[in-house]
Amino acid sequence: MFKRRTTGSVVCPGCGSLVGVTDDRCYTCGRVNPGLWGFAPVLRKLGADMGFVPVVIGGSTLLYLASLLLSGGDVNLVGGFSILSPSSDALFLLGASGAFPVFIVGAWWTILSATWLHGGLLHIVFNMMWVRDLGPTSAEIVGPARTVIIYTVSGMCGFLLSSAAGRYLTVEIPFFHGARFTVGASASVFGLLGALVHYGRKSGSSLIRGEATRYAIILFVMGIFFPGVDNFAHAGGFAGGYATSWFFNPLTRERGDHSLVAVLCLVATALAVVASVITGLSIYR
Fold first, then answer.
1. What are the pLDDT digits (tens) for 152-195?
2. Among the listed ranges 11-15, 21-25, 78-82, 111-115, which one has the minimum average pLDDT value?
């Protein structure tokens, strides 16, 4: 699957026309190096099935287990929603976001990594249930690569809004509060819902728009009654997902470029975790 193509024709990632794998430029859209050094077919196959749900659940679970191991004896073993909660130090080390990491420490990249971290057993279970329910639907409707992009960008938007509110907001808003520390996939889950709402409006599908809106309302109401829920991150994630879907126009077909950007999103997220670990170790040293 990952073999580099050196001869023959490939599909241009920019416009979908057939081009020679070694052509310098696409004769239809003018894209430079449409064969992507022979790796365009690899990206096309990858884009057909990004493995979105297994990647998110697997990556989030591994980081959750790592946060428990790093917490040592500070793991919370009692208490409803906070049972098996890792320590704040462990979450900070792995890339928790919020006003403190982003604006005090200057770890701006944590708006990428925080989506993959969770603050307790029930926290990760509920979020991964929503990912498992919404991921395949989003991949089928807007495309697997664009789903990865929406998931990443909406998480960034949610944590940036929450972190900024935690640092600069001086007016109290009911049910909304800025976060000093914040983690979780729910901002990105709201982003998937925002993208589906946009698709429903764009395509005229009242069923998809209605179902996505209903899920968003249910999650928002749950956020009101559960303590410590970051509704700013939810709002930012929803807006980010809606805006990203608008930018891509989900009624158009997915292109090879989208697969490339999706891979870059995953690589950037992994690098954000690494950067957080390096920064954290330098602080705790």
1. 999 999 999 999 999 998 877 877 887 899 999 999 999 999 99
2. 11-15
d(CA 47, CA 43) in angstroms, rounded, equals 6
Cα distance between residue 81 and residue 83, in whole Å: 6
pLDDT of residue 144: 86
32 touches 24 (CB < 8 A) = yes
Q: What DSSP character marks residue 103?
A: I
Q: Which strand (E) or helix (H) includes residue 57?
A: helix 52-71
Q: How far apart, in whole angstroms, are the C-alpha atoms of residue 125 and residue 110?
A: 22
Query: Which amino acid appears at position 58 of this protein?
Result: G
Task: Report which secondary-structure segment, H or E, holds 162.
Answer: helix 144-168
Q: What total number of domains does the chain contain?
A: 2
Q: How many angstroms separate the CA atoms of 53 and 123, rounded?
A: 17
Which residues lie closer than 8 Å to 261 by C-beta, 6 or more apart? 145, 149
Q: Is residue 16 part of a domain?
A: yes
Distance (Å, rounded) from C-alpha 31 to C-alpha 72?
52
List Cα–Cα distances, 132 to 50, 126, 128, 220, 259, in angstroms. Answer: 14, 10, 6, 19, 21
Q: Are residues 134 and 248 in the same domain?
A: yes
Element (H, E) at 54: helix 52-71
Q: Are residues 96 and 178 in the same domain?
A: yes
Q: Is 19 helix (H, G, I), strand (E, B) or coil?
A: strand
Whether 107 and 275 have beta carbons less than 8 Å apart is answered as yes
Are residue 123 and residue 31 in the same domain, yes or no? Answer: no
Q: Which candidate, 250, 264, 28, places its Cα nearest to that of 140?
A: 250
